[in-house]
Design brief:
Elements (H helix, E strand, L loop, with lengths): L1 E9 L8 E9 L7 E4 L12 E11 L8 E8 L12 H10 L6 E12 L2 E2 L28 H13 L4 E6 L5 E9 L1 H21 L3 E3 L14 E6 L7 H11 L4 H7 L5 H4 L14 E3 L6 E3 L1 H6 L4 E3 L8 H17 L1
């Protein structure tokens, strides 16, 4: 007897990597191990030296197949040396997580995405250049006019729960056809692993409905909300006192850090961070209590309780979460260690 292991990895496509997967039949009793793939077909190698290696790092039950089948998230390694490939952002994330483990960082990531069908967001009029009614009734909406894609969202949520992911909520977003799921609280590496796995399940389940799930940062130009991955973050010190909250905000706004973070916050942030649609302009940095137009929001309850977490509202929906969680952990914990 045997089971199926779906090997999943992040490729080298620029500016936004794609997810890839292939199936290996594994004898019962054996664990999924190293496996090779053709890196010349994924923008990760030349055809004359095309082998890259998949190293399993996170395995969960496969809710799409059931039985003993599993989903296997992998990092990409170079052959022979088995060193991290240049597209492997997980390795650097692990290094920073280990360095600052004593701070006990926790993350909650809010992954926004947009359903597309026949080239238009799901639920939008299909003929000509017609648009739906302006934004207003769609956020957390209820009803056939306000909502499109709930059946896919429910299937995806059930799949994430069955896989054992730390999915903590879902909601419809501000633009019709746009949704969000949240993963966390989890550690620096764990939350990124789970976001990638949840994305895979989103793409895979959307296939069954003939719909594409997009994490484009600005899926529709004009007076429509972009899509972000708001990043909630805390350390043990922040969960114990407000001074650490303010120190974290100041560290994120320090000289050189704003530019460093924006460079790692996803492709197309200039189109999304315009100062409109609940964002701060990318050229500015500020933090404030309850301010969804700020770069960093301090939740009202955190200010009241004088402890808790902060929300970085700048990361795009198309981030590599390994990059974002590494940057936030390194900046905040590094400043606190100085």
């Amino acid at each position: 007897m045997a089971y199926r292991a779906e090997y999943i990895w992040i490729d080298g496509t620029e500016p936004t990597p794609l997810m890839r997967s292939k199936t290996k039949i594994v004898p019962d009793g054996d664990e999924p191990g190293l496996w090779n793939f053709d890196g010349s077909s994924t923008n990760q190698a030349e055809g004359s030296n095309s082998d890259c290696m998949l190293n399993p790092v996170y395995t969960v039950p496969d809710p799409t197949r059931g039985g003993n089948d599993v989903l296997v998230l992998c990092e990409v390694l170079l052959p022979e040396s088995l060193e991290p490939h240049s597209t492997n952002n997980r390795a650097a994330c692990v290094e920073i997580a280990d360095k600052f483990a004593d701070f006990e960082p926790l993350f909650g990531l809010e992954q926004e995405y947009t359903f597309f069908k026949d080239g238009r967001p799901l639920g939008w009029p299909q003929e000509g250049y017609y648009y739906p009614a302006p934004q207003g009734p769609y956020y957390c909406g209820v009803g056939a006019v306000e909502i499109a894609g709930r059946d896919i969202v429910e299937a995806h949520t059930s799949a994430c729960m069955a896989a054992g992911l730390s999915i903590s909520g879902t909601n419809a977003e501000v633009m019709l056809g746009q949704w969000e799921f949240q993963i966390g609280p989890c550690g620096t590496v764990e939350v990124a692993d789970q976001i990638w796995m949840a994305r895979y399940l989103l793409y895979r389940i959307s296939e069954d409905f003939g719909v594409n799930a997009s994490i484009s940062a600005k899926p529709i130009k004009g007076d429509w909300n972009g899509a972000g991955c708001h990043t909630n973050f805390s350390t043990r010190q922040m969960r114990e006192g407000y001074d650490a909250i303010i120190a974290a905000c100041e560290a994120l706004g320090a000289e050189g850090k704003v530019e460093e973070h924006l460079a790692g916050y996803g492709h197309g942030y200039e189109d999304r961070l315009t100062g409109q649609h609940e964002t701060a302009h990318f050229s500015q940095f500020r933090y404030g209590v309850g301010d969804r137009g700020a770069s960093i929001r301090i939740p009202w309850q955190v200010a009241r309780d004088q402890k808790g977490y902060i929300e970085d509202r700048r990361p795009n929906a198309n981030i590599d979460p390994y990059v974002v969680t590494r940057l936030m952990t390194n900046t905040v914990c590094g400043a606190a260690s100085a």
